[in-house]
Amino acid sequence: MASPQISLAYGALLEEQQLISELTASAELNIAPHLLARYRKAGLAPRHIQLGDRILYRRDDLRTWLTEGPPELPRRRKRPKLTLLPAPA
After folding, report:
1. For residue 86, what are the CA distances in angstroms to 81, 82, 89?
2. pLDDT above 70: residue 54
């Protein structure tokens, strides 16, 4: 468990840098959290900061990303259709 001093310092850092969580960022962008994560993994998301296991975004970076317009995600490959073979005689 984090000490109160560390928690206060962390909170001050978030406020000073205007950092918001991935969940808050996805709500502000009006997209699902898993889609924002998919953008990030594809290298197409707004700039982010990783602190431990937390992903944080600056509000200014979100605004810039929205102004430029979210990029198209690459399409997933379609699975090949299975063809049924005739039953052996």
Report:
1. 16, 13, 9
2. yes
Nearest by Cα to 21 from 46, 60, 53, 56: 56
How far apart are the C-alpha atoms of 27 and 36, rounded to whole Å?
10
Sequence spans of domains, the chain: 20-68
Cα–Cα distances in Å, from 56 out to 6, 10, 24?
A: 17, 12, 9
Q: At what angle do helices 22-29 and 59-68 cross, to 10 degrees?
A: 40
The token pair that represents 50 in the structure block: 């990783």
How high is the pLDDT of residue 18? 80
Residue 66's pLDDT band, with cuts at 50, 70 and 90, is confident
**Residue scoring higher pLDDT (85 or 25):** 25
